[in-house]
Amino acid sequence: MSAVTTEAVEAASPFEDTDAAPINPRTRQLLQDPILPMLIRLAWPNILIMLAQASTGLIETWWISHMGTAALAGMALVFPAVMLMQMMSAGGFGGAISSAIARALGSGRRGDADLLAWHAVVVNVAIGLLFSAVMLAYGRPIYRALGGEGAELEAALVYSNVVFGGMIFVWLMNGLASVVRGTGNMLFPALVTCVGAVLLVPVSPLLIFGFGPFPGLGIAGGGLALVLYSFGGTAVLAWYILSGRNLVRFGVGPLRWTMFRDIVRLGAAAAINSILTNVTIGIATALVATKAGVSAVAGFGTGARLEYLLIPVIFGIGAPMVALVGTNMGAGQKDRAMRIAFTGAAIAFVITEVIGLIAAIFPVAWISLFSEEHGAIDAGVAYLQIVGPVYGFFGGGLALYFASQGAGQLLWPLACGFLRLAIAGLGGWLALEFTGSLNGLFFALAVGLVAYGGILFLAIRSGVWFRGKAA
Asked: Which residues cross the membrane (predicted)?
């Protein structure tokens, strides 16, 4: 195993003054332990807990489906925006926070890691408030552009206004969790997520339908449950860091542009990747609405939700990959960082491919959980049968995106994301025009996923991480 050299430490520092410190035992494990057992050890609790978190969204969808097709379709319109916030705050800027802290710890700069934690809070508060303002002011034209109208549009606005009214807590919760994950501690953020998910299961139907003295709030109750969950998670994670139990604490000192730049530069690039994923689904939703109407939107949205369900699974693998790759890149161990990337991508490919194949074989079992309408089932089944068998390329590609984030290199993940959008959006529109069938659109979505994962794998394998400057 290669040693952590002084030259590697000095080369890794993006700041003018460093605070070198002895390597912490947890950090040393990230630099020296066997890759596959360590990655599995760090990833499996994350995968289980992320699945638990994602399942709460499915449960909420199931409850709201009892309010009718309009409510279900309205939630389908809002879901890409909510997932965009989750992806940007946890996997986008959150990954940038974890990567920056991991690289600082890997190069022995403990003081910089502490200051990065405080800067991360400032960044997340500012971005959370910005998106709240945008969606509260312009939600109606945004959802109308996605094909919403009538009762489904009104339902979407009610749910969206509640969720985005408390969006700052979603950003803070994921930002603080990323501070903890950057140290290699995956367990505590996972436990916070798990406990919150368990509590959310009874709270969501209570707020939606009411019970005894509690009035039913309808679809707004589902949004309020999500806000309360995020607020509670924020409070617990903040206590954990402030109590000194975390390896990295909130550093005391003036705000420094160099540290904002380290987070924002990588986070903005990662956020674009998250936007591309959600815009792809959003455009597909609009095309389905134009071609087949509200029932098909509900069915497609339910089918596409399984694709979104894969994201927390991959995040369970990707979060430790950010810390592992970032720490090893900070220590100058580039070959080990590459091995970590491809090991994690292989695990993600297998898991998501199995899920996709099961969904393609038994599509009705999934769609009928949320809707019994003929149009909804037809659209959802067609989507899962065509796109499900290539979910592995999405899983492997997204895992390599997290690895690239840890390496501080996001140019190729962004390029592949734009390629997927072009194939799915333009190709899907052309397919609808020439075939007149939703199947053509779904084939375009499948081709986009294969291109995304396959080309990114070939690019990273060719050594693009080590050419030019960080994205």
From this structure: 42-64, 70-94, 115-138, 158-180, 187-211, 217-242, 263-288, 308-328, 340-369, 381-403, 410-432, 438-460
